[in-house]
Amino acid sequence: MKKTIQIPIINESQILMTDITYTQVPYWFDATLRPLKMDIIMPKHRENHPRKPLLVWICGGGMQTMDKDVWIPDIVSYTDRGYVVASISYRTYPDDFTKALKDVKAAIRYLKAHADLYCIDAARTVIMGESAGGMLACAAGITNEIREFDEGEYLDYSSKVQAVVSLYGPVIRDFVTPELDDMIKRLLKENKEHIPPFFVMQGTEDTLVDKKYMDQMYCDLEESGIECDYYVLEGAGHGADEFYQTEVKNLVSDFFNKAIVPES
Fold first, then answer.
1. Which range of residues forms the domain containing residue 128?
2. Is 7 contained in some domain?
3. Exposed, middle or buried: residue 10 (CB in 10 Å: 0-12, 13-18, 19+)?
4. What is the C-alpha separation between 53 and 60, in angstroms, rounded?
5. Which of 136-145, 172-181, 248-257 has the lowest mean pLDDT?
6. Is residue 1, in this structure, part of any structural domain at all?
């Protein structure tokens, strides 16, 4: 059988660029360096392409481990919703939470510095994470415009984000020093004009992160006058499939689209 047909182009072709080094950090008793890497999903044809908003994704792992590649099959769907998606690595144990937060901000600066290459509209940058990655996403939003956590290259670029999504993320104070915890509490009040809107989601059957802590975080954000959409998933456990359904992705996309700065 031979047929000649025409196929309308409805879906834009995307490519996955893997293991891009965005910075190097001290390693082996601070005597050497090791690279931190990211994966980026972007349009295949980028020449003269309109810039797309950037979604930075952070994998969880209890600050003990992480894998930037593991969620690619799920987060690729956000490219169909109009985003360039970057999944980043960061330092874990024995390095502390503060170093991981600095890595997140370094990744954002790298992406903005290379916006032309990756078809990114740097003014429309959002961040999202699951579990410990959700906690890091929250910390990145709370410390928006706080330069103390910007270290390394591309310091002429801002690590600011326009919106934060945290899926079943633990409360930040569980992983930080008392001094950093006090600073975060203070920033919720003193830095609130720079803190973007939040979207948090928690399951009622989560045995790793008690829902009461997410309840408290929601109250803290509300009391500080920071916009927060809080969704409770009935019967869902930690990292359950409910968090990755199309309905949830639509809610997240709607939230991001309302929060990001329109393209100039």
1. 14-259
2. no
3. exposed
4. 23
5. 172-181
6. no
